[in-house]
Amino acid sequence: MNQKGMTLIEIMIVLAILAGIMAAIVTNVRGRLAEANIRQAKIQIGQIENALEFYRLACSYRYPTTEEGLEALVEAPGSCPGWGPEPYLRSVPRDPWGNPFSYESDGSTYEIISFGRDGRPGGTGENADISSEDLN
Questions:
Q1: 24 to each of 16, 27, 30, 119, how far by Cα in Å?
Q2: Which of 4, 49, 67, 95: disulfide with 114, CB 3.0–4.6 Å?
Q3: What pLDDT is recorded for position 3?
């Protein structure tokens, strides 16, 4: 009797091979996604910096204070009569992990920070802080 088909052992071997290939692909894609998120955070910080420079030019050569925050780029604060006429950003961006950017300023200098995937200060890899001071 000539039977055609695969035995259970052959099917399990094929599934094990496919699982190994999928694991390798997922690991590679996850690493690329982490790199892409870090690059995106750096790009977003650069865009915020550009908006801050336009704000500074319109607002007597000062940046929004920490209290005014990045919201001053979206809605005019009372402390800047030359603001606008259009917002410097459409909305206050969030980093690629969905966390708000940290912004601190005394009016003459500023620092923008993404705290990475975990949203907490410090960390390594994808959890590492990305600061505007490190980009310049």
A1: 12, 5, 10, 28
A2: 95
A3: 65
Residue type, 67: E
pLDDT for residue 34 = 86
Alpha-carbon span 104 to 90, nearest angstrom:
20
> Is 126 in contact with 117 (CB distance < 8 Å)?
yes
Q: The whole model's pTM is what?
A: 0.79
Residue 89: closest CA among 133, 41, 45: 45
Look at residue 109 and tell me if it is in a domain: yes
pLDDT digits (tens, 9 = 90+) for 103-124: 999 999 999 999 999 999 999 9
Residue 3 in domain: no
CATH number at residue 76: 3.30.700.10
Q: How many domains does the chain have?
A: 1
